[in-house]
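testing teh design pipeline on a random one, pls ignore if ur not involved
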């Protein structure tokens, strides 16, 4: 009887926990892309009336759960002029690298999908690499938000 109660307690705990254990550490569940990077980039390009240019390297995409905070800080601090204290979604012009937070709880809480975050950062990639804009222009952030919102409303599935 004690074994059954212990087993049921474990099932209830694991079923309601926001984290899982891996290697003795608590790990937050990660959000997964619904679409490929190529598909999302194609949609961003189409939205901006741009054609894909194979001579322009597609950025590396690094997820928070797989990226060391120190690497993120070292990569983004020259572009931002400060050392970020936490990981956030970002596009590094110098490294042609996109950083995406992949905490599933965040996306669920805000009724978003990780794909729309990637669309936002790929909008900055297009602004920088295709259009040669300086990302210090604050108006570019508004355009990226518009593309992100459009992508979310068009492609992201919502929970009923």
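output:
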């Amino acid at each position: 009887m004690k074994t059954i109660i212990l087993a049921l307690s474990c099932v209830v705990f694991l079923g309601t926990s926001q984290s899982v254990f891996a290697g003795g550490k608590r790990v937050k569940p990660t959000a997964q892309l619904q679409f490929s990077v190529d598909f999302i980039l194609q949609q961003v390009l189409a939205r901006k009336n741009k054609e894909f240019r194979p001579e322009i390297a597609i950025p590396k995409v690094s997820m928070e759960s797989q990226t060391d905070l120190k690497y993120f800080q070292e990569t983004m601090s020259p572009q931002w002029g400060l050392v970020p204290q936490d990981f956030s979604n970002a596009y590094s012009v110098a490294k042609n690298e996109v950083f995406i937070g992949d905490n599933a709880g965040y996306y669920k809480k805000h009724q978003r999908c990780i794909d729309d975050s990637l669309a936002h950062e790929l909008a900055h990639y297009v602004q920088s690499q295709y259009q040669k804009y300086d990302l210090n222009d604050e108006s570019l952030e508004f355009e990226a938000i518009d593309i992100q919102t459009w992508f979310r409303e068009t492609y992201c599935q919502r929970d009923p």
